[in-house]
Amino acid sequence: MLRAMLRDLAAHKGRLAMMLAAIVLGVGFMVATWVIADSTARSAAGAPARTDVDVAVQAREPDARFTADDRNRLAALPGVERASGVYAAHAALVAADGKLAGVWPDRAGTNWDPSQRFTVTSGRGPERADEVALGAAEADAAGLRVGDSARVILGDGASRRFTVVGLFTYRGLGAEPAPSLAFVDAPALFGNAFDRVELVAATGTGQAALADAAAAAIGGDRGDAERGRAVRTGAELADERDDLAADNARSVREVMLAFAAVALLAGMFVIANTFTMLVTQRTRQYALLRAVGASRRQVRRAVLAEAGVIGTVGSAIGAAVGVGLGMLAMAAFGSETATVVYSVSPVGVGAGFTAGVVVTLVSAWGSARRGAAVPPVAALRSDATIPRRALRVRLVVGLALFAAGVALVAAHSGTRLDETDRVLSVLGALVAWVGLLVLAPLMAAAVLRPLSRVVTRGPALRLAVRNAVRDPRRTAATASSLVVGLALVTAFAVVGTGFGAVAGDAIRGLVPASTTVVEPALDGARLSADVPATVAATPGVTASLAVPRGWADWDHGGISVSAVDPAALAATLHLPIERGSSDLGQGVVLLRWYADQFHVEPGDRVTLRFSDTESREVTVAGVYSGWEAQPGLFIDRALVPEKYRGDVEAVYATGSRAALEEAFRDRPDILVSDRDEVVSRLVRGFELVLSVIYALFGAALVIAVFGVVNTLALSVLERTREIGVLRAVGAGQAFVRRAVRLESIVITGYGGLLGVLVGLALGGVLQHVMLARELWLIDVPVPLVLVSLVGMVLVGVVAAVWPARRAARSDILAAVAAE
């Protein structure tokens, strides 16, 4: 019996190819994700490591940096053979085209030394004060070569030109960001404060003993010391580097596996639908097997064995494809100056292979049970109907799940959400979505059956609609794979549109139209120390506010703190207060997100901890509306330590914007904007992230297209005699092709419309949870919706090409004689 089914499977290579394609894409995506994540981790961990540092004494805060006396004191410790100071200072590299090179300038500058930090790839190290060595990758991005003149903007705003004499690759310590500019005369450029001091132990001195001595010398302990300094051995720093690489790889894997899971979910619908149709077409074959003595268990096992073979073959091919795609991705995005280590983890390949087989078996389980449960006599009928009891069960279960999900979302529809509210709201949305998937056949019948009565023009269209209605379970399963991918794309588009609205409203609510914003040209960078003073001294500027950003601990974990001048705050910004007062003389002003998350109200007392030895209890004066990227709280700068007054991320000024633009005309590292330009850049950056998400969800839509092709092909096979009769009574090949094509458009159009509607609802919940926005305020991404619906029609046309040709070319006499 099993051999007969396998021979039948091999005889229908088209439907086998469609199922294999769905499995291969899902498994390949999953394995490729694993290969990329593991290879990235191995490449980072396998990069050349430094062996010339036994102990590193590091400054965690700017005011904890080391002087020459500190270095000399550490150098004088017993067992120290050599001590050297390392700078990590602000240095902005200007590209050959006059624009800022894409390197964060905050810690890009360092001092050249003969240690293992630098590996020269071209030229030599700097030897004179007017020379610089550049990171090879950064020099290539900036269009600079050895011998060129490079413009560098230093931390005090001074612009200097240096001759590029060499290119290098960098070996970091632990989680150290790699600098991109190295100078020989660093003290003259950066001052006399070192970021860390590296110690080399004399022969016979252990790393641990030297680290303990160094910790005692700086007045702290091993690890993070009270003065913001840390003492680590070389071995500890090597482990830190490897741990960081592993954490980054794990983060990439977790994010990418979510997209792989969506692709596999879409594949489940394709596989389940195919097996449902195969079981329906084989009813007579199963009946004969049952009649000659086969038991239900044997039939069920045969169907599952067939699924196992398909799953095994598809998963094996998918694993091989995934390994190849992962390696191609690493090769495409790898750097010429860095060694790429390819890693094919048996765990990753095994996980992808197992997932593919399990998904196939689970998808086929329901069909195997239905095929085994039909009595032999009843199975001799060639028509297939959905049992009424199955429809009733679907109706009850689907409605229960949908109602429970909607109720859960409605119960947490307020805007003052804590973490539990957010989790339950998303859970409710997912439960409601599962309910809709359970109800899919009933919904397909409810929507398409009335449509079949309304459609009166065009016999091909009437036939197409009625064929789609004939088996609503099949139509729903085919459309569901489209719904999964399209709903997720639409949901994230809603989130993106909502993000633009929320971020725009928040910035416009905080920044008056008359205020000019001075900020770094690179997102995430910090302004050089001279910028606030330059803004304040610019003629025509009536008031200016430097907004730094630091992190402190408070009663509920960590919070971002902006220490500002209260008078300058009132003159330049307008805090949109929801509750309480904006007067920093009465206490701190807290972002609503934190207030709602932890149920903090104006008048409450909270404790801010700036270090292990320094804290302050403050009163919450007010709560202001905004979004999560804005400062967690504003506080009077007189109440915080000195280190919280630097690290400025933006300066807000009133007065002449033209004067500010002139003041920073030769500073490509500085942007002078109004609030609308700030919003526009923010939204563009988020749209770039969304475009990547759309591309990843596209894998599910590709699988869904294979599902449509597979369904139509099997449907044509199922209706061989019907098509033959149509041809016999005068229907031409064009009519048959048009009918199949219109049926495909009906199915994809229904799936596209349902996917958009589900996506809009899901997106409303996600933006409610992520942005604390009212649940019913859904910004419909109209362009994407229109493109999606038109795209579904095109998908329907393309998917029907092969099945329609096959149907139109069927032999009339053979088709009429077919059983």
From TrEMBL:
GO terms for molecular function: transmembrane transporter activity. It comes from the Bacteria. Keywords: Cell membrane, Membrane, Transmembrane, Transmembrane helix. The chain crosses the membrane at residues 255-280, 301-334, 340-362, 391-411, 423-448, 482-503, 692-717, 745-770, 782-802. Residues 258-372, 696-811 form the ABC3 transporter permease C-terminal domain. Pfam families: FtsX (PF02687), MacB_PCD (PF12704). The keyword Membrane applies. The keyword Metal-binding does not apply. Residues 17-214, 475-641 form the MacB-like periplasmic core domain. One of its GO terms (cellular component) is plasma membrane. It is a multi-pass membrane protein. It is found in: Cell membrane. PANTHER family: ABC TRANSPORTER PERMEASE YTRF, MEMBRANE COMPONENT OF TRANSPORTER-RELATED. Belongs to the ABC-4 integral membrane protein family. This is ABC transporter. It comes from Virgisporangium ochraceum. The lineage of its organism: Bacteria, Bacillati, Actinomycetota, Actinomycetes, Micromonosporales.
